[in-house]
Amino acid sequence: MTNSCLTSITLCCMDFYLLKDGVHKTMDNISAKFLWQGAEEKFSYHMAKWEMVSRPKDQGGLGIINTKIMNESLIVKWIWNFF
User: Taking Cα atoms as reference points, which of 29, 33, 56, 27 lies closest to residue 45?
Assistant: First the structure.
Protein backbone atom coordinates (compact mmCIF):
# COMPACT_ATOMS: atom_id res chain seq x y z
CA MET A 1 0.00 0.00 0.00
CA THR A 2 2.87 2.39 0.69
CA ASN A 3 4.29 1.82 -2.79
CA SER A 4 0.99 2.26 -4.58
CA CYS A 5 -0.30 5.27 -2.64
CA LEU A 6 2.53 7.30 -1.20
CA THR A 7 5.28 6.99 -3.81
CA SER A 8 3.10 7.07 -6.91
CA ILE A 9 2.12 10.67 -6.15
CA THR A 10 5.70 11.90 -6.29
CA LEU A 11 6.90 9.63 -9.08
CA CYS A 12 6.09 12.19 -11.79
CA CYS A 13 8.17 14.83 -10.04
CA MET A 14 11.05 12.41 -9.44
CA ASP A 15 11.04 11.49 -13.11
CA PHE A 16 12.31 14.88 -14.28
CA TYR A 17 13.96 16.59 -11.29
CA LEU A 18 16.79 15.54 -9.02
CA LEU A 19 15.30 16.11 -5.57
CA LYS A 20 17.32 17.24 -2.56
CA ASP A 21 18.18 14.90 0.30
CA GLY A 22 15.79 16.71 2.65
CA VAL A 23 12.88 15.93 0.34
CA HIS A 24 13.83 12.25 0.24
CA LYS A 25 14.14 12.14 4.01
CA THR A 26 10.71 13.73 4.45
CA MET A 27 9.09 11.32 1.99
CA ASP A 28 10.72 8.33 3.70
CA ASN A 29 9.59 9.62 7.12
CA ILE A 30 6.00 9.85 5.90
CA SER A 31 6.19 6.31 4.50
CA ALA A 32 7.73 4.99 7.73
CA LYS A 33 5.06 6.64 9.89
CA PHE A 34 2.37 5.18 7.64
CA LEU A 35 3.93 1.72 7.86
CA TRP A 36 4.52 1.63 11.61
CA GLN A 37 1.68 3.77 12.99
CA GLY A 38 -1.06 3.59 10.41
CA ALA A 39 -3.85 6.09 11.01
CA GLU A 40 -3.27 6.27 14.75
CA GLU A 41 -1.26 9.05 16.36
CA LYS A 42 0.17 6.96 19.18
CA PHE A 43 3.85 6.01 19.34
CA SER A 44 4.81 2.65 17.91
CA TYR A 45 8.17 0.90 18.11
CA HIS A 46 9.93 0.19 14.83
CA MET A 47 10.49 -3.50 14.43
CA ALA A 48 13.23 -3.15 11.80
CA LYS A 49 15.54 -0.50 10.39
CA TRP A 50 14.30 1.47 7.37
CA GLU A 51 17.27 0.21 5.31
CA MET A 52 16.05 -3.36 5.90
CA VAL A 53 12.43 -2.54 5.13
CA SER A 54 13.25 -0.75 1.89
CA ARG A 55 15.23 -3.66 0.45
CA PRO A 56 13.73 -5.68 -2.40
CA LYS A 57 11.61 -8.67 -1.42
CA ASP A 58 14.12 -11.17 -2.81
CA GLN A 59 16.75 -9.70 -0.45
CA GLY A 60 14.59 -10.07 2.65
CA GLY A 61 12.93 -6.65 2.73
CA LEU A 62 9.35 -5.56 2.26
CA GLY A 63 9.97 -4.03 -1.16
CA ILE A 64 9.14 -0.45 -0.15
CA ILE A 65 10.67 1.96 -2.63
CA ASN A 66 13.71 3.93 -1.49
CA THR A 67 12.93 7.35 -2.94
CA LYS A 68 16.54 8.48 -3.37
CA ILE A 69 17.53 5.40 -5.36
CA MET A 70 14.33 5.61 -7.43
CA ASN A 71 14.93 9.29 -8.19
CA GLU A 72 18.52 8.68 -9.32
CA SER A 73 17.42 5.68 -11.41
CA LEU A 74 14.77 7.68 -13.24
CA ILE A 75 17.20 10.53 -13.98
CA VAL A 76 19.81 8.08 -15.32
CA LYS A 77 17.11 6.46 -17.47
CA TRP A 78 16.38 9.83 -19.11
CA ILE A 79 20.09 10.44 -19.69
CA TRP A 80 20.50 6.94 -21.18
CA ASN A 81 17.55 7.42 -23.55
CA PHE A 82 18.79 10.87 -24.56
CA PHE A 83 22.20 9.62 -25.67
Answer: 33
**Which stretches of the chain are DSSP H helices?**
7-16, 21-36, 50-53, 67-82
- For 65-80, what is each residue's pLDDT tens digit? 888 888 999 899 988 8
Asked, for residue 57, whether it belongs to a domain, the answer is yes
Q: Which domain holds residue 75?
A: 2-36+48-82
Using alpha carbons only, give the angle 22, 37, 41 rounded to the nearest 5 degrees: 95
Q: Are 65 and 54 in contact (CB under 8 A)?
A: yes
- Structural contact between residues 41 and 33, judged by C-beta atoms closer than 8 angstroms: no
* pTM of the predicted model as reported, rounded to 2 decimal places: 0.72
